[in-house]
Design a protein that fits this description.
Elements (H helix, E strand, L loop, with lengths): L3 E11 L10 E10 L2 E7 L8 E6 L4 E4 L1 E3 L11 H8 L4 H6 L4 H10 L2 H16 L3 E7 L6 H17 L3 E9 L10 H18 L5 E6 L6 H13 L4 E5 L7 H7 L4 E4 L5 H10 L2 E4 L1 H6 L8 H6 L4 E3 L13 H12 L3 H7 L2 H6 L17 E4 L16 E6 L2 E3 L2
Parallel strand pairs: 1-4, 1-5, 6-7, 7-8, 8-9, 9-10, 10-11, 11-12, 12-13
Antiparallel strand pairs: 1-2, 2-3, 5-14, 14-15, 15-16
This protein binds N-(iminomethyl)-L-glutamic acid and fe (iii) ion.
Length: 406
């Protein structure tokens, strides 16, 4: 048997394994890495005698699975601070959208930007997330809203994955809002996405999933159902922006299509939560959007817990509702605004975020056989990750077995 590539010793490991209590703590732990994966992990005293090319003592530092941001819109051009100001002066998000602002103003800027400009802007945001311990990021399209520009966004996202050590998962969100060319012809736009864009995206392997925005200012459940049926025909899993501003039956729709996740969920009913539980869909909570829109309607956290729905937390990094390029901030906000416990915040950005991306079999916890995506922290307990605000605590990030300095 070939030796290990790297052996981490004297670590306090929070495995976050689903079958372990709490954080899955292993004191005086060791992790052996071979071929980018965890080959052995456990108490140092039980470590088998085995050669390793490199050994690194962590001197008692805590390690957790590297963080996963499972919902972002981080490829975009421009910014929307003027709209932010308008909202603080009394205009609502819906009213701005209906007047042609909101998502559509970012569409204008993103269409006008070159692929290289979008790449540079996206790369800076990817690096900001990685600097906090994030190794896997989901990026949605949805600011192109025509064939050419949706493909451009997805290609840029794929390039971000190829040019960095991080894993980038891409999601087609062409059903984000109705583009001006299709004003009053929403069904025709859904047909364009379903019959022209989606087949091209699938043929070129540009997306790992399909998402849609189910809301009165965006798309109805029947319109989204049509798109989701096509996605499933192309073997692409679905996920949904559901019940963010009103209860549009989004959670039920997501459950019906066996979605990986339903996201936002502020207005989801208990029936919607029960449907998600039956379907095994993850609830992705986005406290950055809740905070920025100064929402008061809380997502149904107790019902999610009671029904055993897995809860993930993500940044929702976007220029309109969540200008927050920090997953740590999302964790911190989830504890303050939604009452999630620190353990729920950390599981929500590791194990449950992996589950929301359909990647739990190879990441999200520290277990033998999974990718060696490991964050090393300067903390005295992992609960501190949801506690301190504005304090950088990452000591090192190991991605696929290699130390990465973002
Ligand atoms: O997740 N709700 C729709 N999509 C984004 C907002 C996008 C935007 O306003 O640009 C969200 O909050
Ligand atoms: Fe979003």
């Amino acid at each position: 048997m070939a030796g290990w590539d790297l052996l981490l010793t004297d670590a306090r490991i929070a495995t976050l394994a689903a079958d372990s209590p709490d954080y899955g703590e292993i004191r005086d732990g060791a992790i052996a890495i071979a071929d980018g994966c965890i080959a052995w992990l456990g108490p140092g005293a039980e470590r088998p005698a085995h050669k390793s090319r490199k050994t690194r003592s962590l001197g008692g530092q805590w390690v957790t699975p590297a963080l996963i941001d499972c919902h972002t819109h981080l490829v975009f051009a421009g910014e929307r601070s003027q709209e932010f100001e308008q909202r603080l002066e009394g205009a609502s998000y819906e009213a701005i959208a209906i007047a042609g602002g909101g998502i559509l103003s970012t569409v204008q800027a993103t269409r006008a930007a070159s692929a290289n400009e979008l790449f540079d802007a996206g790369l800076a945001r990817v690096k900001a997330l990685a600097a906090e311990g994030v190794a896997t990021i989901e990026i949605k399209s949805g600011y192109g809203l025509d064939v050419e520009n949706e493909l451009k966004m997805l290609e840029v996202s794929r390039r971000l994955g190829e040019s960095t050590d991080l894993t980038i998962r891409t999601t087609l969100l062409a059903a984000h809002t109705v583009p001006p060319e299709f004003d009053g012809k929403v069904d025709d736009y859904i047909d364009l996405i379903s019959n022209t864009l989606l087949p091209e995206v699938a043929k070129r392997g540009l997306a790992d999933a399909v998402d849609a925005y189910c809301e009165s200012i965006a798309f109805s459940a029947p319109q989204i159902a049509k798109l989701f049926r096509q996605a499933i025909d192309f073997d692409l899993p679905v996920k949904l922006h559901a019940d963010q501003l009103s209860d549009g039956g989004g959670a039920e729709l997501a459950a019906y299509f066996n979605a990986l996740s339903a996201d936002h969920l502020e207005y989801t009913s208990v029936a919607g939560v029960e449907a998600m539980a039956k379907a095994g869909a993850v609830a992705v909570l986005l406290p950055g959007a809740f905070l920025t829109l100064r929402e008061t309607q809380q997502p149904p956290v107790d019902a999610l817990r009671k029904n055993g729905v897995p809860i993930a937390v993500a940044s929702d990094c976007n220029p309109g509702t969540s200008p927050i390029c920090s997953l740590r901030t999302a964790m911190i906000l989830a504890s303050r605004l939604f009452g999630l416990t620190p353990l729920e915040c950390i599981a929500g950005t590791t194990r449950e975020a992996a589950r929301a991306l359909g990647l739990l079999q190879d990441r999200g916890t520290l277990e033998v056989g999974k990718r060696a995506d490991i964050a090393i922290w300067n903390i005295s307990h992992p609960r501190e990750l949801a506690y301190w605000i504005g304090t950088p605590q990452l000591a090192d990030l190991i991605i696929g077995g290699h130390t990465t300095r973002p």
